[in-house]
Write a structure and sequence with these properties.
Layout: H1 3-29, E1 31-32, E2 40-47, H2 57-72, E3 80-87, H3 92-105, E4 110-112, H4 117-129, E5 134-137, E6 153-155, H5 160-174, E7 180-185, H6 188-201, H7 205-208, E8 209-215, H8 223-231, E9 236-240, H9 243-255, E10 261-264, H10 271-278, H11 280-283, E11 287-290, H12 304-316, H13 325-344, E12 347-348, H14 350-357, E13 386-393, E14 396-399, E15 404-405
Parallel strand pairs: 1-12, 2-3, 2-4, 4-5, 5-6, 7-8, 7-9, 9-10
Antiparallel strand pairs: 11-13, 13-14, 13-15
């Protein structure tokens, strides 16, 4: 063999080694935990498709449709999303059963946007103990923002406590002599809200709050509670209830001729699921605080974000009631999940998922109100901390005042 031949072989061998090293390096950069492969990302979800909070089920249906859209476009970083969603009937024992099934049988990479304060509280320690991300919980409980004690749990929407503090501040500003009737769910959701009101009312609570009535999710009707609150002589009603009961409360108040200043929790502002069933005339004047655009409101007709949402709804959820704000919610939450997974690249470990979820910077999903953006950090697991006051007028929600951030009322 000539010297030239030996040199040529040496060059070819060196090139092959370099290619192999490069390929090995590329492979080494890929990292997976259970639920992720070169071709798939398995995401778990739990929704109340049945039971007293079934109005929220459309959120899960929207998210399933969203990930079908993503898969049709090639997936995320070349991987298709396998979205596995189960019904818990808004019952904590059933939530525990479904969470274990998702983690231990379906072997999902993470749990995304599972709904309910009491239900997700029931599985928080379990998921954190197994280092499974409980990501973007569909609940405004302040407990989800506790990265030191629960580093695998993160909320998504504004906290109930912040919203309640905004309401209390608004009441004191507009009706300093108000007598408040408080109607709330007898669970962590309702109690978190009550604590927010207490933050602002403080020692004045006995003077301001004329009556309190709590309800159980198992109650078929809450009419008697509303009658009792009216009889207290209160001129302000703070309504902290899920959609089914919120609609009942609005309707009953109208039937008995009670017309207090009515403040309604954001989780029950859906026109399609609450205001229309309660009656548009009965709902007139109700106040709330919001952060999502209403797809049925013509003011967003030329909004680019809303155009993207409507194109999605037309193709993947034909016939869906776009006046139901839960669709806009599910769309925005799914966009946030997509953003985190794209940031993860080929490192689809659970630790990196939480790391990237805590690195969202001014992210603005299509259906969030202008000026409201998602920001997180390793010390701040509360993605959305801004709201605007709004009032239901002539069949739609009308925003007023400035965007209020959490710090604005401290």
């Amino acid at each position: 063999m000539s010297v030239r031949q030996r040199l040529r072989i040496a060059v070819l061998v060196a090139a092959a080694v370099a290619v192999a090293a490069a390929s090995g390096s590329a492979l080494a950069r890929k990292a997976y935990d259970t639920g992720a492969t070169d071709t798939e990302i398995r995401i778990g979800n739990i929704m109340p498709y049945s039971g007293p909070a079934s109005a929220y089920g459309v959120i899960g249906k929207t998210e399933a449709a969203y990930f079908r859209m993503i898969n049709d476009k090639g997936g995320i970083n070349g991987r298709k999303i396998n979205f596995i969603s189960y019904d818990d009937g808004y019952s904590p024992p059933k939530t525990v059963e479904q969470a274990r099934k998702l983690v231990e049988s379906d072997e999902v990479l993470l749990i995304f946007n599972a709904l309910g304060t009491a239900t997700q509280t029931a599985v928080q320690k379990y998921l954190n103990g197994r280092n499974v991300p409980q990501l973007f919980v569909a609940s405004g409980a302040s407990k989800w923002n506790d990265p030191k004690q629960f580093p695998w749990t993160m909320g998504w929407q504004p906290s109930y406590r912040i919203e309640a503090r905004i309401f209390a501040t608004y009441i004191l500003k507009t009706r300093p002599d108000a007598r408040v009737a408080l109607f709330y769910a007898n669970d962590d959701f309702g109690k978190d809200y009550v604590n927010g009101l207490k933050d602002i009312f403080g020692d004045r609570w006995p003077k301001i709050v004329a009556a309190e009535e709590s309800y159980e999710n198992s109650e078929p009707s809450i009419d008697s509670h509303i009658v009792k609150l009216k009889d207290s002589g209160a001129d302000v009603l703070v309504n902290i209830s899920t959609p089914k009961f919120a609609a009942q409360a609005i309707k009953k108040a109208a039937e008995i001729g009670w017309k207090p200043m009515h403040l309604l929790t954001n989780v029950s502002i859906s026109i399609g699921a609450v205001m229309k069933p309660a009656g548009l005339e009965a709902s007139e004047g109700v106040l709330s605080a919001g952060y999502l655009k209403d797809a049925s409101d013509p003011q967003w007709a030329d909004d680019e974000g809303m155009k993207a949402f409507m194109a999605f709804a037309d193709k993947y959820m034909p016939g869906a009631n776009i006046s139901d704000t839960h669709l806009a919610y599910g769309f925005a939450a799914s966009q946030t999940m997509e953003q985190v997974l794209r940031q993860c690249g080929d490192d689809l470990t659970r630790a990196n998922i939480m790391k990237q979820a805590a690195r969202l910077n001014d992210f603005a999903p299509s259906t969030l109100m202008p000026g409201i953006k998602i920001n997180t950090s390793a010390a701040d697991f509360a993605p959305i901390e801004q709201l605007r006051m709004m009032q239901f007028k002539n069949g739609r929600w009308v925003f007023f005042g400035d965007t209020l951030a959490a710090g604005a009322i401290d």
